[in-house]
Amino acid sequence: MLYQQRIVRRIILISMVMLCGIMSRAQHVTDVRAHGALADGKTDDSRAFQRAIVQAQKNGTRKIFVPKGHYLIARPIKLPSYFTLEASPDAYIELKPSCNQYLLQNEDLVNGNAHIKVTGGKWNGNGWTQTRTMRSTVDSSDFCFGMLFYKVRRLEVGNLQIDSTRSWGIAYMECDTVHIHDIRFQQNPFRDTRQNSALMQNGDGVTGGGNHVLIENISGFTNDDLVAFAAGGASFQGKMSPFPAVDYHDVTVRNINPENIYDSIPALKAVAFYTFENRKVSNIMIEKVHGNTAMASVLFYSLFGKTGYFSGVTIRDVSGANVYGRSTQPQLPVVYGIISVKQSVMDRLDISQVSREEDRYANPQFLFDENTVIDSLNINQVDIRHRHIQGNLLLQSAGAVIKNSRINGVSIQNRE
């Protein structure tokens, strides 16, 4: 009996010590307001963010909290390894106009970092005021991304909104084990104060390259691709950035919902995969892509006239049509299919559960250009409905080499 009482007392003591430790860590939640952030939308709070990060490293929590408020920053928030930034849903973090910086980045852009998490808040990059500069190295360039993560191992970004960045909203390059989820974009559709369209100005939502990548639950408007994946490299209006071209594998993109903004301008593309310098991306899953676009719902493209390689590609549950008809870009809806492959070699492409409500354009559902080679193509369950449109609404593949194909369950109907 005495032995049992000792055991019980020891368990109680251990529990109390653990609880005290938990309470102690909770008391050390590092609030940026406590380190000088005014959150008045006028004062530069950049230094307060970095002071909070240094303190969180010292007290061992390795986490900062951004409460409700309007934070103006003129320099990027730099996160070290094994670190979390958590923002309130009511926190608004704004990049100072014309400062030509990132909103946030990992601390070491040369060697990389590990275990970084960013969650919450609404982030605004004041995109049309920023000027982007590319130099010979990643760490010396000013790309004006919203968030840049370079060579990060184990990265999570989620539950936040990003508005109006000069380049991509969230960029991750040469990363490993990435989860980006529950992001809403409202990129600025204009490139200047005169409200000239910024469509096709590299205003992507999520863009990057890495292994073991999961991108899910992404919605909103972007000037270019809502979600893009690049086999290393990256281009801005035809110019190559200093990111190297690399082979990648194991990429899943799901629950992607492009939307219109303001005067019915749609996102340019929903999901796009690119290769550079003859590189390869393997084991790709794209599913549940729903929403209209200006150019394509899903695109595979190898740029600059060089063949790229994609292996083990599955696309399923895609719906959407072309809705962009402005005179300034009349070619967009007619030079791409809703699902397109250009300048690429694939060993296997499986497509299923595709639907489309088309009211304007007689472009094909599937387009494979003359530089495409596919060893095995399987298309299943296609439902296309249109309103008195004459033309090829299904498949265009003149010049493409498709060695083996199987197409089942196709329905094309005219809606009265």
Automatic annotation (TrEMBL):
- Database matches in Pfam families: Pect-lyase_RHGA_epim (PF12708)
Could you list this entry's UniProt keywords, alphabetically sorted: Signal
In the UniProt record, does the keyword Signal occur? yes
Where in the numbering of this chain does the Rhamnogalacturonase A/B/Epimerase-like pectate lyase domain appear? 31-283
Superkingdom to which the source organism belongs:
Bacteria
List the taxonomic lineage: Bacteria, Pseudomonadati, Bacteroidota, Chitinophagia, Chitinophagales
Q: Where is the signal peptide?
A: 1-26
Name the species this protein comes from: Chitinophaga varians
This chain belongs to which protein, by name?
Answer: Rhamnogalacturonase A/B/Epimerase-like pectate lyase domain-containing protein
